[in-house]
Design a protein that fits this description.
alpha/beta
Length: 183
């Protein structure tokens, strides 16, 4: 039987290599938000003080093949519009799944406005759009998995997904990360 999501999943996964080697400068707001530091384009080394590496507990995710992997350094980068009906349908699904898995969600908004599920957003800009949507249509909702330490980025989904479909996409994307050796 033909899988209706196979063409989109194939297209998203084919973009993964491009996203893996793309520059990290446009992700500076994301990295800055994760680190709790102001956004700059050139770090001032003299102002930085050495800090101890934060200790964190593993966040376990079980792949469909039975392997258990640690996803503590991964998060979803989620693109929305405040007036998008597909976002309104999908956002609660994503929020519930992320809460259950212990997966953080970082939200960009095309119109700079959040919604009831994700009220705190950053507005998109040309650099962010170029980084994430170089080979994808600019539609909402769109989601990527990003490693917060290496900035490896893997396309996750476009459009409103059911909980089952989102779970399958997470499994496929984390499986890709394992196969590429970037987990």
């Amino acid at each position: 039987m033909w899988n209706r999501t196979a063409p989109l999943a194939g297209a998203l996964l084919s973009c993964a290599y491009f996203m893996l080697v793309a520059g990290a400068l446009t992700l500076l707001p994301l990295v800055s938000a994760l680190a709790g530091t102001p956004v700059t384009t050139t770090p001032n080394v003299q102002q930085r003080e050495p800090s101890a590496a934060p200790t964190s507990s593993p966040v376990w995710f079980r792949l469909a093949d039975g392997r258990t992997i640690d996803i503590q350094h991964w998060q979803v980068v989620h693109f929305i519009r405040s007036d998008c009906p597909y976002c309104h349908r999908f956002n609660p699904v994503l929020r519930d799944m992320a809460d259950r898995l212990g997966l953080k969600v970082f939200v960009y908004s095309f119109d700079g406005v959040g919604d009831a599920v994700f009220p705190d957003v950053l507005p998109t800009n040309d650099a962010v759009l170029e980084q994430f949507f170089a080979e994808l249509p600019k539609v909402t909702p769109t989601d990527f998995l990003v490693n917060t330490q290496t900035l490896v980025t893997i396309p996750l989904a476009q459009g409103a997904l059911t909980e089952v479909a989102l779970s399958q996409r997470l499994d496929e994307s984390f499986g890709l990360a394992v196969r590429l050796g970037v987990l």
